[in-house]
Specification:
Length: about 425
């Protein structure tokens, strides 16, 4: 098969790395890709959100199967455009992608099907939101309804902060149309887990869980980012918790989406808050996680391509995937300044030496080749990923590789997987 992956970050590099190892893949393309992806796929400069451009590209390249990796094109209907062009693809339709694209859609689904999640109310009027907030306890969570590049959630410690955040979002200053409606919800205590489940609209295939690190600096300090590191497996996410999550959260969602006439075909990113062994839904995403996919692909021993195709064609119930029992861990190297302003174009050296560390793969998130030189081209730049029999050893390997990379303009967290180190599942 000729396969096209839409996107150009670390998640897409890990997916391309796994897909390129499949005997089913004769030729792999990625658009737009990056300098690391170019080692395993032919990269073509078409933007990930350019729906007509990606469809035309797939037609021109005679693509048999397209994997739409990022959220924005899915929420905007790229899967529907591929369907209309008769091209097989992985990724949910626009109406199924509302699970990520609209927080209130998901909260209403939870209410209808009794799915455990934080209590909430939806507002599009500032005065009503203010009156409600004055009657609530803090901390409290304010969310823009639509996509906001991972920045549309404010956890307010005081009522004044909460009111300011609600005003800011509803005035349209902060997230434009994505914030024209907001969800105000109860603050949930606990530990966050990202769990992934493939779905063909009818049947499901649970994958594995991972844990992300959203804050920029060590000890979970600093601003929220797209994710500074991840690891898998997650010690607290045992078989009992997985079963409970499937029964109470995922399976009712699959049924609900079918009943709404929007069967979900793709991967559920189930964002969970776990408190005393009880899972509650924080959010759904309609795509693989970034950076969670990087350690997950390291642990995957089976061919991923038949599983992705089954999401489109059906038959997922007859598939099984095998995973390594080892631990995999990803450290993100980001450009200094990220998640705020930063400069592109600094040179990164030492990648070849770093890649030689046992058990290490270096996925590129935001890089650009300039002849033989590799330049930083984004906030999150490299995903140094390592696998080993224990999470401690995986972490040692990853940081050994990080220390061989010569890039003074970059930074990373030094405490990835702190929740797992020294803990047994
Ligand atoms: P989201 O964009 O929904 O993933 O939210 C971003 C982050 O905000 C989540 O990963 C959580 O860390 C946090 N968060 C969101 N909703 C809640 C909640 N109800 N209680 C506690 N933390 C939350
Ligand atoms: N790791 C966070 C995300 O993919 O949204």
């Amino acid at each position: 098969m000729r396969i096209l992956v839409v996107g150009g970050g670390g998640r897409e590099h890990a997916l391309c790395w796994a897909i390129s190892a499949s005997p089913l893949c004769t030729k792999l393309f990625c658009a737009p890709g990056n300098a690391g992806i170019a080692q395993v796929a032919e990269c073509i400069d078409v933007g990930a959100e350019d729906i007509p451009g990606q469809v035309a590209l797939a037609q021109r390249l005679k693509i048999d199967f397209t994997v739409i990796a990022p959220d924005a094109p899915l929420v905007a209907g790229m899967a529907d455009a591929f369907a209309a062009a008769g091209i097989k693809h992985f990724g949910p339709s626009r109406s199924a992608a509302r699970l990520e694209g609209s927080k209130s859609f998901t909260k209403d689904l939870c209410k209808r099907y009794g799915i455990p999640t934080a209590a909430y109310e939806r507002f599009d009027d500032v005065a009503k939101a203010e009156a409600y907030l004055k009657a609530q306890k803090t901390p409290i969570v304010i969310k823009a309804d639509g996509l906001a590049a991972g920045k549309g959630v404010i956890i307010a410690e005081t009522t004044d902060q909460a009111i300011a955040a609600a005003r800011d979002m509803l005035s349209g200053n902060r997230f434009g149309a994505s914030g024209s409606s907001i969800v105000i919800e109860e603050f949930m205590q606990g530990e966050e887990v990202s769990f992934f489940v493939l779905c063909d609209g009818e049947d499901v295939l649970p994958l594995v869980a991972a844990q992300d690190h959203k804050r920029a600096f060590d000890d979970d300090k600093g601003p929220n980012t797209g994710g500074m590191g991840a690891y898998s497996p997650v010690p607290i996410f045992n078989a009992a918790l997985q079963k409970r999550t499937m029964d109470e959260i995922v399976l009712p969602t699959v049924r609900g989406m079918k009943e709404l006439g929007a069967p979900f075909k793709g991967v559920f990113y189930v964002g969970l808050m776990v408190d005393q062994g009880k899972p509650r839904l924080v959010e759904y995403n309609c795509r693989f996680g970034d950076p969670e996919t990087q350690p997950m692909m390291m642990r995957l021993k089976s061919d991923i391509v038949p599983a992705l195709i089954a999401c489109a064609d059906g038959g997922l119930a007859h598939l099984d995937l095998r995973w390594s029992d080892q631990a995999a861990l990803t450290v993100i190297l980001a450009t200094k300044g990220y998640p705020d302003a930063y400069k592109n174009g600094s040179e990164i050296r030492g990648l070849a030496e770093a890649a030689k560390v046992e058990g290490v793969e270096i996925f590129h998130a935001g890089t650009k080749a300039d002849g033989p030189r590799i330049l930083a081209n984004g906030g999150r730049v490299l995903n140094v990923t390592a696998m080993a029999p224990t999470v401690e050893e995986a972490r040692n390997r990853a940081y050994r590789a990080v220390d061989l990379i010569d890039w003074p303009e970059g930074f990373c967290r030094r405490d990835i997987a702190w929740r797992a180190v020294g803990r047994k599942s």
